[in-house]
Design brief:
By secondary structure, the protein is mainly α. It contains 18 helices and no strands.
C-alpha cells in the first residue's frame, strides 16, 4: 500500500492520469477502427492500411523536417526568454512552410509511383496522395504547435488537444471506413490528424497572445542549424523504420501468406495502442525534464523517476494483456485473427524491453547527441531486419516478433552501457 501511495502522490502520476484518459480515448477509437477493418477488410486489408500508415509517418517527419523534439528542447530552454523564443518559433515556421511546399510538389509528381510502392500495381489509390496536399498545412501545423506547447510545459493543454483529436478522428474514421472500406480507412489516416489543428491553434494563441512576431527578419540561421541536428536524427528513423516494416510485411507475404502479414500488422496495432501511454508521457513530461537537466545527477533523477513509477505499472499492464490475449483479439478483431495469439509472448517481451530503453533513447535528443543516436538507431534496425527475416523463414509471423524481442534486448544493453555514468550515480 505504501508503494502505491508513493506512486499516486507523485506529480508524474497526476500528469499521467489525464494522459491516461487521452490514451484510453484513442485506444477506444483504435478498437472501433480495428473492428470495422477486421469485419470489412480482413487481415489482408489491415496489412494494406499498415503500409499507408508507414507512409503517413514518413510524410509527417519530412513535413516537420524532424523538428518536433528540437522544438521542445529549444522552447524549454528559452521559456523565459521571449526574444529568443520568438526567433525559434519564427525559424521553425518558415522552415516548415518551405518543407510543406516541397512535399506537396513531390506528392503531385510522384503520386502514381507512390501508389505502386505502397499498394502495388493491383490497386489505384494514387488520388489519396494528392488529397494529402490539402491536409498537410493543418496536419503539420498542429504537430509544430503541439511541440511548442510541450516545450512550454503546457502538459494539460497538450493532452486536451490529443483528446479532442482522438474523439473527432475516431468518429470521422469510423464513418469513412464504414462507407468506403479501404479508401475510407486511407482517407481517415490523412484527414483525422489535421482536425487537431483547431485545438492546438486555440491553446497556443492563448499562450502567446498573437503571432505578430512571425516576421522573416527574425529568422535565425544559427537556430536552424541546431534544429537540423534533430532533423537528421528523426529522418534517419523515418527513412529506415517504415522501410524495414514494409520489408518484414512483404517477406511474410512472400514466404507465407497475406493473412499472416495481417496477423503481424494486427499485433503491431495492439502494441501501438498500449505503447501510446508511455510514448506520449515521455514526450509531454519526461523529455522537457531531460532537456532542462544540466548535470548527470539531474538526469539520473529523471531516469529513475521514470523507472520507479511508469515501468512497474506498464509491466503489470503487459501481464494482464498476455493473460487476456484471446479476449482482446476477439474484441479488437474477430475469430479469423485468433492465430495471432501466438505472437503475444515475444511482442510483449520486446515491448517491455523497449519501454525500459525508451527514456535512454530520449536522452540522445535532449542532449543533441546526433552521432551516437544515428549509430545506435541504424544498428538496431539492421539487427531487426536480419533477425526478423531469419526467423520469419522458420516460424512465419511469429519470427517477426521474435526478431523484435531480440533487437530490443540488445538495444537496451547497448544504451545501458553507453549511459551507465548517468544511470548509476553513487549517493556517497
Amino acid at each position: 500500500m505504501k508503494f502505491l501511495k508513493q506512486i499516486t502522490d507523485n506529480p508524474i502520476f497526476k500528469v499521467s492520469s489525464l494522459n491516461t484518459i487521452s490514451v484510453l480515448i484513442k485506444i477506444a477509437g483504435g478498437l472501433l477502427a480495428s473492428k470495422i477493418i477486421a469485419i470489412f477488410l480482413g487481415p489482408a486489408g489491415l496489412a494494406l492500411v499498415g503500409n499507408f500508415r508507414n507512409f503517413v509517418r514518413q510524410a509527417e517527419v519530412f513535413g516537420t523536417l524532424g523538428f518536433e523534439n528540437g522544438i521542445i528542447k529549444y522552447i524549454a530552454e528559452n521559456e523565459n526568454d521571449d526574444p529568443k523564443k520568438q526567433r525559434v518559433i519564427t525559424t521553425v515556421f518558415y522552415s516548415v512552410l518551405a518543407a510543406i511546399i516541397v512535399l506537396s510538389i513531390i506528392l503531385v509528381i510522384f503520386a502514381d509511383t507512390l501508389n505502386t510502392l505502397f499498394f502495388g500495381d493491383e490497386h489505384t489509390y494514387d488520388w489519396i496522395f494528392r488529397i494529402m496536399i490539402l491536409a498537410l498545412p493543418w496536419y503539420i501545423g498542429n504537430l509544430v504547435f503541439v511541440g511548442i506547447l510541450n516545450g512550454l510545459t503546457r502538459y494539460k493543454e497538450v493532452i486536451k488537444i490529443n483528446i479532442w483529436g482522438n474523439v473527432t478522428g475516431v468518429l470521422l474514421s469510423a464513418i469513412l471506413i464504414w462507407q468506403l472500406n479501404v479508401p475510407g480507412a486511407l482517407l481517415g489516416l490523412v484527414i483525422s490528424p489535421s482536425l487537431m489543428f483547431l485545438a492546438s491553434f486555440y491553446f497556443l494563441k492563448k499562450q502567446l497572445g498573437s503571432f505578430s512576431f512571425l516576421h522573416i527578419k527574425k529568422f535565425d540561421s544559427s537556430i536552424l542549424k541546431g534544429l537540423l541536428s534533430y532533423s537528421l536524427m528523426s529522418l534517419v528513423t523515418t527513412a529506415i523504420g517504415p522501410l524495414v516494416a514494409i520489408s518484414i510485411r512483404t517477406h511474410i507475404i512472400d514466404d507465407h501468406s497475406a493473412n499472416e502479414a495481417g496477423f503481424w500488422e494486427a499485433m503491431s496495432r495492439i502494441s501501438f495502442f498500449y505503447l501510446m501511454f508511455v510514448s506520449t508521457l515521455l514526450t509531454v513530461y519526461f523529455f522537457p525534464k531531460l532537456s532542462a537537466a544540466k548535470t548527470n545527477k539531474e538526469t539520473n533523477n529523471v531516469f529513475w523517476s521514470y523507472y520507479k513509477t511508469i515501468v512497474p505499472i506498464f509491466g503489470l499492464g503487459l501481464l494482464t494483456i498476455f493473460l487476456l490475449r484471446n479476449f482482446i483479439v476477439r474484441l479488437l478483431f474477430n475469430d479469423d485473427f485468433l492465430p495471432m495469439t501466438d505472437l503475444f509472448l515475444w511482442q510483449l517481451i520486446g515491448d517491455f524491453l523497449k519501454v525500459i530503453a525508451l527514456i535512454l533513447g530520449y536522452e540522445f535528443f535532449a542532449k543533441k547527441m546526433t552521432k551516437a543516436f544515428i549509430i545506435t538507431e541504424i544498428t538496431s534496425y539492421v539487427i531487426l531486419y536480419f533477425s526478423s527475416h531469419y526467423f520469419i523463414r522458420l516460424f512465419g509471423a511469429e519470427g517477426a516478433v521474435m526478431g523484435h524481442a531480440i533487437t530490443y534486448m540488445l538495444y537496451l544493453f547497448v544504451l545501458g552501457f553507453y549511459f551507465r555514468k548517468k544511470l548509476f550515480i553513487s549517493n556517497k
